[in-house]
Fold:
Amino acid sequence: MIICPNCSHENPDGASYCDSCYTPLPVVTISTCPNCDSPVQSDASFCGNCGFNLKSASEHEKSMTEETDNTSSPEEVPLPAESPISTPEASPPDLSDDDLALVQELIEPHPLTQLQQIGAFLIHVQTNINLELPNNLQVIHIGKPNNMIPPDIDVSGFPDSDIVSRVHADIRFEGNAYYFEDSGSSNGTYINNSVLAAGNRHKLRSGDRISLGKGDRVSFVFQMSS
Amino acid sequence: MSVNLSCDFSDRHLDSSVSTSQRQLAITISVDGSISVSNTPLNLCLVLDHSGSMGGQPLDTVKKAARDLIDQMSYKDYISIVGFDHRAKVVVENQTLINPESVKEKILYLKAGGGTNIDEGIKLALKELSKSMKSTISQALILTDGENEHGNNDLCLQFAQLAAAEYGITLHTLGFGDYWNQDILEKIADAGGGTMAYIESPDQASAEFQKILRRVQSVGLINAHLILKLAPNVRLAELKPIAQVTPETIELEPEKNLNTYIVRLGDLMLGNDRTIMLNLYINHNPDQIVAASTANTIHAVTAQIRYDDPQSKLEGLLSPEVTADLTLIKDFQPQINPQVQSSILALAKYRQTQLAETKLKQGDRTGAVTMLQSAAKTALQMGDQQAATVLQANATTLQSGTDLSEAERKQTRMVSKTILQIPTNQISTNQIPTE
Structure:
């Protein structure tokens, strides 16, 4: 029996289209468990016989192949950024996704970062530039240069930064968690595409998308590195 | 005139290592004839709603559309006109169109007033049509603008089924404005073997009348039935296994007799192919494959058409039998037939929209939105941009918390049932892919 993912109709074995709504049905093939050699469905997470974690086995294999790829071309590995806050001008131009992933891999096992409680950084979506959050500050100000509250993270070098206020938002570090709040910006702040009302704070989790101003033009993805 | 049948499987190879496979079989039926318009006399009955809500411009345009329609008919044709409000009466008795002016004049006497009783109208129409059934093509056009408030919807359906099955009369329905019941009009048209049209604004009335007249005039053969014989190891799917996909989508009910299934098709039009799609499951022994190539062929389905030819006054004629074969192969690679694939998408679009409507009736708005979105995606996949736009717009409306307007509901039904835009990839590819 194959249950249609679209309309939940129960289809007989052998169906390739749902009898009810004609949605193509997932093709389930039978493979063998690497641990006990009993038959398992291709989309299963665990072996029904021995409980072996099939997903982790396949991911492990994948990461193994990636690592061997990395070591094969050591001369292309760029050095990690020296300063914790890299302004756009100072950062290496046009990092590709692969390069960034390598940078992260190199940062993580570093003994210094292990001493920090929590490391966190923002990835600027439009340019893929990585900004590490300074870990010595309780409040990190985000904005552009001004006379009242100078920004700890200066976004003035990014494209479309004209829509970001000089005093735009703060990231607070409290009790091992980061919180994001808008400090009365002109064009507002959006977290995961919903507006963050002034005065509200949002507890940041890895993968949250932060947009300064409307239209998703100056956006960051928040990542915890430990 | 002769009937041509062609059968195409969604994939005519079967994986020999799997014991049960699902296949769709598209059966295309066309009428071969040297002429494009049949010269068999028509026996047409207009069933016109003149209830109070039709008053003013609507009834005036319908009268004009009916008069234009009569101008297009031949003097050999038979006409009858039934008007109905909460009761029905014969406006023009069944007669040949020797004097079209007097018929047109009688149409002008229709006055708006009263309620709506569709089944009374259909009943009288069948009575009028039955007066000139011999060697004619008998059809009724039913136009209404409202709910069947003084009638009984079940009775309407019974009349439609009776008309089609017993008398070979085809019923077409036309919904006028936004307040008719698309469920009942669709059911009448489907049971009556006809088409359903939506007249959104009065100025479209004439065009929709002409469209149906052209269809009626192209009817070559009537009372057609598709006879299907299945091999012992082939079975129909349990849920709605047979549907018509072109010219419009209609779910068909087969009559079963041992291994034979009979499906009523009604009229066969000249120059307008019908496509019927079957959903089949084929069982076979996994290790049945034999080295010799002929033993691996399964004669899955045999199809034949039984029909009446009103022109030569012959009844129960049979087309040649056509067999649809499947081949078992060892190293199976899917080879999808693009033509059957587009039929599958057409049915998917209809079914998904229907499911969305059911969900909406049950109050499951989120489910309805998801289903409408998949229907829109299906429409895009088949190249039916116009349907995709309508379906997606409705999904967005529902998502924002607004209910669909009556007009939007009707549009949804129409775009799900028909293909508004001829998919570009279908125009030139009129051949079965070879190996």
Remarks:
- The radius of gyration of chain A is 23 Å.
- The CA atoms of residues 116 and 122 of chain A lie 17 Å apart.
- Chain A touches chain B through 14 residues (CB under 8 Å).
